[in-house]
Amino acid sequence: MVPDIGIVGAGVAGMHLGVLLRRGDIDVTVYADRSADELARSRLLNAVMHHQGTLDREKRLGVGHWDGDRLGWRHRYQNVHGPDDARYSAAVPGASLALDYRVYLPALMADFEQLGGRLVVRPVQLDELDAVSRRHDLLVVATGRGGMQLLFPVRADVAQRAGAGRTICAALVTGVSRPDPEGVTLSHAVGVGELIEFPLLTAQGMVTALLFESLPGGPADDLAGLSPAADQKTFDARLLSALESHYPATHERVDARSFESVSPQDTLQGAVAPVMRQDFARLTDGRPVIALGDAHVLIDPLTGQGANIASYSAEVLGEAIIDDLGFDDHFCRRVAARREHVLRAAFEWTNLALDAPAHLLNLHRAAVSSTDLASDLARRHPDPDLMWRTVATEQRVARYLRGFGITPGRTTTEDTRHDQT
Fold it and tell me: Which keywords accompany this UniProt record (predicted)?
C-alpha cells in the first residue's frame, strides 16, 4: 500500500521533501500558505545561500535548474574590522549560489506538481492539525508560521539563547562593484555586528545583496527599523553611512553616486530568535507529527546554514519514509538520531558566532598570515558539523592553530569587552 504524506509548509524544507517523496512514488500533499504567483510578487523572502552539498542535492532531486559552477562563486572574503583590522580571502572547493526565493520556490512548486504532487494553497491553522493529520498516514510540519512551532517543545538538553542575537536588515542594491574573483564577503565589525555581501540571482539578473546583522542596541541597530517604503532616500543614505562607518572592505567598492536599494520590495527587516525544538510531537489523538525546517531548528542567517540544514533534514526524513513505512515512535526516534549531529552543530556554531568570542575572532586574525589556514577554514565552513568541532571551544581552536604551526594569540582588550556584552 502506497503511504500518503501531508506536509504543512512550502519552503525549501517542505518542497525538497515533497519532490523527494514523489520521486519515490509516495503520495504527497503540500499545504502552502501562498501560491506561486503570490510568492513571485512578494517582498524579498530571505537572503540565503546554497552551498555545494545543497546544490548536489538539488541535482539528485532533479530541481537543479541553476548551474552553480556558472552562476555561483568559489571564493570567501573574511574581515574583522576594528582597532586591528584583519582581512584574508581563500578559494572554496565547492560552489555556493544565492537565488531569490521569489523565483526559486515557485519553480519548486511547479516541479512538485509536474511529478504528480498535490499542492493545496491555503493557510493551515494549529487547531486544524488533528483534522489534517487524519487525511494522511504521516504529517510533517515544515513551517513556523501561525504558531505551528509551538506544537514542538523547546529542547531542554540544548542551550538556548534568550531572544534574538542580531537585528536584521537585508537589501538588494546597485552601486557596489563585485570583488574579483567573485565571492561572498563576510565582515565582522567589533561592537557593531556583521555584514554579509554576496551576489544574488533574481528574475531581473544578478544583483548585490547586503545583509546587515546588527547587535541590538549597537550603532547599526536602527537599520532594521527604518522604512524604505516611507522614505527610500533616507533608507539608502543610512545603508551607505553604515558601510562607510563600519564595513570598509565593502565600502571601498561603492560608487556613492549610483548606490541605492533596488526597491522597497527588495528589502527585508526583522530579527530571528534561534531555537531548537523536539523532533516530533503527538496530536490529541496520539498520532505523531514530525518537525522539519524552521518548525524544528531556527537559526540566525549569520553563518549561512539555514536553507542548507533545512534541505539536509528533508533528505534524511524523505529517505527514512521511503525506507520504513512504519510511522511509529521507533521511526520518529530513528529520524531524530540520523539528523541530530548536523542540525545541532549548525545551531550551536551559529549561536557561538553570534557571541563573537575572542577565540573565534583570533582564529580569523591568524588566517591573515597563513594561506594554508585560510584555505582550510574556507573548506570547513560549508560543513557545520566539521566547523563546530573546530571552533566550539578555545582549546579546540588552539589545537587547530597549532596544527598549522601557529601559536594562539592573546585576547585584545576590545575583544574582551565585546565578548562580555
Answer: Monooxygenase, Oxidoreductase
Residue 88 lies in a domain: no
Distance CA 269, CA 169 (A): 4
Q: Let me know whether 156 and 286 are in one domain.
A: yes
Q: For the chain, what is the domain count? A: 3
- What is the C-alpha to C-alpha distance for residues 171 and 236, in angstroms, rounded to an integer? 9
DSSP state of 410: P
Looking at residue 264, the DSSP 8-state letter turns out to be G
Give the CB-side neighbour count of residue 144, counting CA atoms within 13 A.
17
- Whether residues 155 and 200 share a domain: the answer is no
**What pLDDT, on a 0 to 100 scale, did the predictor assign at position 378?**
96
**Residues whose CB falls within 8 Å of the CB of residue 84, separated by 6 or more in sequence, listed in order:** 365, 412
Angle at alpha carbon of residue 196, lines to 195 and 197, rounded to 5°: 115
Tell which residue, 5, 89, 104, has the closest CA to residue 54. 104
Query: Is the backbone peptide bond immediately before 181 cis, with ω within 30 degrees of 0?
Result: yes
**252 alpha-carbon distance from chain centroid:** 27
Range of the domain at 173: 167-271
Report the C-alpha gap between 413 and 411 in whole angstroms.
7
Q: Report yes or no: 407 and 401 within 8 Å, Cβ to Cβ.
A: yes
Supply the mean pLDDT for the chain: 95
Among residues 143, 137, 113, the alpha carbon closest in space to that of 125 is found at 143
Rounded Cα distance, 223 and 362, in Å: 28
State how far the Cα of 147 lies from the Cα of 277, in Å rounded to an integer: 13
Q: What pLDDT was estimated at residue 203?
A: 96
Q: Are 407 and 363 in contact (CB under 8 A)?
A: no
- Where in 175-217 does DSSP place strands (E)? 184-189, 193-202, 205-214
Residues 413 and 375 in one domain: yes
pTM of the model: 0.95
Residues 32, 104: one domain? yes
| Closest among 183, 162, 145 to 33, alpha carbons compared | 145
DSSP classification of residue 83: T
User: Residues 67-106: pLDDT tens digits?
Assistant: 999 999 999 999 999 988 999 999 999 999 999 999 999 9
